[in-house]
Amino acid sequence: QVQMEYTLNKEKMLKKLHGTSKERNLIDQYVAKVNYLTQELKKVNSRREGLFESFAEGILDEADYQYAKKSYDEEYASLEKQLSEAKSRKKELDGVLTANNEWLQAMHKVEDATELDQDLVNALVKKVLVYEDNRVEVEFKFREQKDVLDRILGEMKKGAVQNGSIWYLYRCGA
After folding, report:
1. Of 10, 46, 123, 164, which residue is the least packed, with the fewest Cβ within 10 Å?
2. ∠105-102-109 over CA atoms, to 5°?
3. pTM value?
């Protein structure tokens, strides 16, 4: 019951924030971060191409070329990693904001449950581990979705993505 109340409260918060400027700003910030990183990747790639052209034309010797290439390659790899993470976070955001949120749907299926039965276990429990010392560990389904929802609701309430103000400023041209 406690988990159900918690879930319904989160769903109410999500519905209350749906369609607001806070939701739109959060979406815009995530999109701006992905766009910014994509542009930065293109810039680094362009510099790498120019570097090779300078080497091929004899403007740079091999040592200078290799040094600069290594630097650009490291920067490119770092940006690729950041972009992958940003896209993953955007996908998480989309999953939470959808009406088809699997966690919320599963909780609604068992909303009226008054006791633990097989349907409840099938809907919410991923696995149960029983140890030799009689400890029991229950791993619930949708834990990651719940954590993502908590994080995103926190971001929406604050009105900004963690460490994301730069992306918002970038998007706005500040």
Report:
1. 46
2. 25
3. 0.67
